[in-house]
Amino acid sequence: MAKYLVTGVGGFIGRSIAAELLARGESVRGIDSFITGRRANLVGLEAMEFQEGDLADPAACARACAGVDTVFHEAALASVPRSVVDPVATNVNCVDATLNVLVASRGAGVRRIVFAGSSSAYGDTPTLPKREEMLPNPISPYAAAKLAAEYYMRSFARVYGMETVVLRYFNVFGPYQDPGSTYSGVLAIFCRKMLAGEAPTIYGDGQQSRDFTYIDDVINANLLAAAAPAEKVAGQMMNAATGARYTLRETFDILKDLTGFKGEPVFAEARTGDIRHSHADISLARKLLGYEPKVSFREALRRTVEWYKNGA
Ligand code: UD2
Q1: Rounded to whole angstroms, how far apart are CA atoms 285 and 239?
Q2: pTM for this one?
Q3: pLDDT tens digits for 186-239?
Q4: Mutate to test the pocket of ligand 1, among 74, 83, 178, 210 (most ligand atoms within 8 A of CB)
Q5: DSSP codes joined into one string, 13-65
Q6: Residue 304: enclosing H or E segment and its boundaries?
Q7: Under a CB-based contact definition with an 8 Å cutoff, are residues 183 and 93 in contact?
Q8: What residues are annotated to the active site?
Q9: What does the domain layout of the chain look like in residue ranges?
Q10: pLDDT confidence tier of residue 281, bands split at 50, 70 and 90
Q11: Which of 88, 157, 258, 280: CA 20 to 30 A from 166?
Q12: Minimal CA–CA distance to 13: which of 162, 118, 142, 122?
């Protein structure tokens, strides 16, 4: 019987959490529908029990949660612009699916659910860094859906006493992130293009900034959130980030150095629903989890570029 369930295990965050659990000798089950997850990401996870299934289907959720102690709920239709194009699909995969996972987890007696929230919930409020007690202000349908799912997590903690923990991720990047879609994360796209000698596109003036978070730090935050005492974390929501921000232009310049790309970016109109600046205060995760980001931005970018060069 698997102790851990990772939803969205074909996605890069789910895949990375599962790999770390397996490396620690844990028993792991993974589920993915491959709407955006990739079968190639399961290579190396052969020790995991895998179920192909869609979390929009309650029966698939029940099968996935049976006998499990801890769920890492990473499955989502991530992407702000995708949600602008198709808000219903985002709702099904981010809200309905999350509610199904919660109901199935409750039915199966799951002890704890760690959920992948999104920094997009903060929206475009001017105050930086973002602290958890700030009022959310979602702009895109994606942000609204991720926030609704967070509220379901909190609600199930309050009304059913379940140990739910929300980690609000801030622009996660690193090896295994899919660079191949217009909806991919910006750093995956930039790495792929710049290594191929193609000019990446910057939407807007490039002065927007992000608290880019390396995958290893996110894995660490998840494992800490799964192990922390319930009195500290059950029903809580906290930022999982680096606690620093870089503009897209600055990031492009570092990548130029790391990839050897010689050109300049192409500039295009800013995207609808886009946020200008994003920067996390990580003191709550430090306090509740003992979380500390470990990899510098440049080193994380270097490792990421190496991965796209060799492994992608
Ligand atoms: C949001 C969330 C993030 C995560 C993610 C999931 C915020 C601040 N962050 O990321 O935590 O939930 O959604 O998808 O809300 N861009 C370019 N060129 C490209 C691609 C993107 O310039 O080819 C720009 C884009 O306009 C934006 C920035 O890069 O200003 C980051 O875009 P992204 O899609 O990587 O992530 P973002 O910030 O929407």
Answers
A1: 6
A2: 0.98
A3: 999 999 999 999 999 999 999 999 999 999 999 999 999 999 999 999 999 999
A4: 210
A5: HHHHHHHHHHHTT--EEEEE--SS--GGGGTT-TTSEEEE--TTSHHHHHHHH
A6: helix 297-310
A7: no
A8: 142
A9: 3-173+212-243+280-294
A10: very high
A11: 88
A12: 118
Cα(160) to ligand 1 centroid in Å equals 35
Which candidate, 112, 116, 110, places its Cα nearest to that of 230? 112
Distance 185 CA to ligand 1 centre (A): 6
Tell me the CA end-to-end span of the chain in Å, nearest whole number: 32
Whether 273 contacts 267, CB under 8 Å: no
Residue type, 49: E
Which atom of ligand 1 sits closest to the CA of residue 146? 12
| 18-76 residue pLDDT tens | 999 999 999 999 999 999 999 999 999 999 999 999 999 999 999 999 999 999 999 99
The one-letter code for the residue type at 203 is: Y
- For the 3-173+212-243+280-294 domain, the top CATH level (class) is alpha beta
Q: Is residue 311 pLDDT above 80, yes or no?
A: no
CA 181 to chain centroid, in Å, comes to 16
